[in-house]
Write a structure and sequence with these properties.
- InterPro entries: EmrE-like (IPR037185), Sugar_P_trans_dom (IPR004853), Tpt_PEP_transl (IPR004696), TPT_transporter (IPR050186).
- The protein has one domain.
- Helix 3 runs antiparallel to helix 9, helix 4 packs across helix 9 and helix 9 runs antiparallel to helix 11.
- Strand 3 and strand 4 form a beta hairpin.
- The strands form two sheets. It has a two-stranded antiparallel sheet.
- Helices cover about 70% and strands about 5% of the residues.
């Protein structure tokens, strides 16, 4: 412990010269106690020097930490709110477009094209640094892009065939395929609690499917297949995009979006044909939407899709995967509820029970994963 000792020619007069002197802590504490009993008067003048008392706030670092945590919490809460809001608007706009324009491959390609344009603007304005990846990563990125493309395409196929609420109820099966693919591709075996949490998910989706008024096998199978492709993308990301050369989440998402757009355009023309002529648009809009409304909704759906997926990746960089999984579960509830209210979807009591059971299972799965992380801190 060091203390400051004043050096003066005359001990009665203060001097600005001082040196550091080492003294024992016990002695220093006794002196500080004695000094604290003496009342110092501010604004005293000695030998031309003016002394002022200064108040130092207690726990300055603690205050900064608390304010920083508060700001981070508010920012994170705002991002979750934006994520949910963009999801709601995307599903509403997208469903209205697919109702009058039954070409999911063309719609998906257009939406990925909107995302590609937004990414180009982001990089040109230097809102985010451009990615740098090694040639050795290209194969892994192409695999991720293929899974990303199929996931978006199959989701749109399902949304065009069945109700939005039913599609998202089926997509509550994502944890089941996450566990299955993790075992097959990564060799990661789930805990007992994780397996138990999958039971209400499977039971709830089954009950909701049997009681769904808009049930359609194409819509059901495409939504289930989108679960496989989306979770394959996530598992492949965990398997390949590790190490010093790994890109950040935003750039990884941006690169696979661009590759998905480039690869899907010829496939969409092959499947649907070129369906963007004025005649095709006129036929599509003859079912209740004007050409202007159709174009605006298509554009907004594309912007919302890319924006909510990018916000999701941004949130994933700020929180743990388990917290992100819980947030995704809440998002599913919000989207299902909002779509039922907006489209006035008829829901039977058994269908409601099935949906609620599946969503409760997703929440239990998130809790089971949290328990596993706490028990194995090294692997998390």
């Amino acid at each position: 412990m060091f203390a400051l000792t004043f050096i003066t020619p005359n001990p009665r007069l203060p001097s600005p010269l001082f040196v550091a002197k080492s003294i024992p802590e016990s002695a220093l504490s006794r002196r500080s106690i004695a000094f604290s009993s003496y009342h110092w008067r501010p604004n005293l003048r000695f030998n031309g020097f003016k002394l002022k008392s200064a108040t130092v706030p207690e726990n300055v670092e603690g205050g900064d930490s608390e304010s920083g945590s508060l700001v981070k919490g508010l920012k994170l809460g705002g991002m979750f709110g934006v994520w949910y809001l963009l999801n709601i608007y995307y599903n509403i706009f997208n469903k209205q477009v697919l109702r009058v324009y039954p070409y999911p491959a063309t719609v998906t390609a257009f939406q990925l094209g909107c995302g590609t344009l937004m990414i180009a603007v982001m990089w040109l304005l230097k809102l985010h640094p451009r990615p740098k990846f090694a040639p050795s990563q290209f194969t892994a990125i192409v695999q991720l892009a293929a899974a990303h493309t199929l996931g978006n395409l199959l989701t749109n196929v399902s949304l065009g065939r069945v109700n939005v609420s039913f599609t998202h109820t089926i997509k509550a099966m994502e944890p089941f395929f996450t566990v299955l693919l993790s075992v097959l591709l990564l060799g990661e075996w789930p805990s007992l609690w994780t397996v138990c949490s999958l039971l209400p998910i499977v039971a709830g989706v089954s009950l909701a499917s049997f009681t769904e008024a808009s049930f359609n096998w194409i819509g059901f199978c495409s939504a289930m297949a989108s679960n496989v492709t989306n979770q394959s993308r996530n598992v492949l990301s965990k398997k390949f995009m590790v190490g010093k050369e790994a890109m950040d989440n935003i750039n990884l998402f941006s690169v696979i979006t661009i590759i998905s757009f480039i690869s899907l355009v010829p496939v969409a023309i092959l499947i649907d044909g070129f369906k963007l002529t004025p005649w095709d648009l006129q036929i599509a809009t003859s079912q209740g939407l004007s050409v202007k409304e159709f174009c605006i909704m298509s554009l907004l759906a594309g912007v919302c899709l890319h924006s909510y997926q990018q916000v999701s990746y941004m949130i994933l960089e700020m929180v743990s995967p388990v917290t992100h999984s819980v947030g995704n579960c809440v998002k599913r509830v919000v989207v299902i509820t909002s779509s039922i209210l907006f489209f006035k979807t008829p829901v039977s009591p058994l269908n409601s029970i099935g949906t609620a059971t599946a969503l409760a299972g997703v929440y239990l799965y998130s809790r089971a994963k949290r328990v596993k992380v706490k028990q194995n801190p090294k692997t998390s």
